[in-house]
Amino acid sequence: MNYDVVIIGGSYAGMSAGMQLARARRSVLVVDAGQRRNRYATASHGFLTRDGSAPDVLAAEGRAQLLAYPTVEWLDAQAQRVEKTEGGFLVSMDGASSVRGQRIILAIGITDHLPDLPGLKERWGRTVFHCPYCHGYELQQGRIGVLASSALSMHHALMLPDWGKTTFFLNGSFAPDSGQQAALQARGVHIEDGPIERLSGEHLDVVMKDGRIIPLDGLFTTTRITPGSPIAAQLGCEFEEMPMGMQIRTDSTQASSVPGVFACGDAARLAGNVALAVGDGAMAGTAAHRSLMFGL
Ligand code: FAD
Ligand code: MG
Questions:
Q1: Probe ligand 1: pick from 57, 73, 134, max atoms within 8 Å of CB?
Q2: CB 3.0-4.6 Å disulfide test: which of 19, 65, 93, 160 passes with 166?
């Protein structure tokens, strides 16, 4: 099959891109492997009109609205490879099938690599988070922990006091210098510098190696981030190095460095959220459409 645009990644960014193209009656294939970044969370906050909605409900409604347009098709699959061909691209799936697209939109998201602490993985998106804007408010100004994973955690520790009484667990991952200690003190942050044994409890208890148990309402940590798929690198897209990891370099229209390839969502904006993914996706969709019309 030959489509005007093949969108790789069918979550908020990819579906938003597809919506603009569908409304221009362009043929679109969305290829999606179903690994949305927020699939661990029960509620998504901060997206105007849908504050507090379940992430999977948002995604399912988006998919239904998009698939109501007759020029849109959907494939539940992993795109393995994209190759530049005469006048477009060849996209190969995991099951050996392939399709052609004149333009490509990469909405592949990112993968979070969590700190290696027993009990953390099971609590990710429930009582352990990375984004205070997404999940800080619901902690009702309660007891908040910041788990250090690198020097970047300093930023987290200085922010979180706006959401509750904050304890910074260094856990051997970071040692603030005297200036940083003064900055933490000025924000009222308590420092715990001993090692942590594990997270436990029905809600959230930090069990220290020395046996103390510190109950919390929520814990924030910075993850190491990698692109949601090797496809962007394989296509030769340039990346930008950000403090948390690499993001696909795009211009203000979400065009990547490879002509005919656009990128949107967390993959092209690491400190992203659903609203930004939907916004950048809309831009990528209209830019891909302009590129089809005017050969840009
Ligand atoms: P994603 O939603 O990550 O989707 C990427 C999609 O691309 C996936 O379906 C994946 O399977 C697919 N894909 C990747 N590679 C391929 C391939 N090769 N072939 C086919 N498909 C592929 N944001 C908020 O606004 N509010 C919140 O409350 C909030 N809470 C969060 C809680 C947690 C625990 C986490 C981790 C994140 C949270 N976020 C929240 C952030 C939000 O999840 C992301 O900003 C958003 O999902 C980005 O959308 P996206 O479309 O760019 O990528
Ligand atoms: Mg951008």
A1: 134
A2: 160
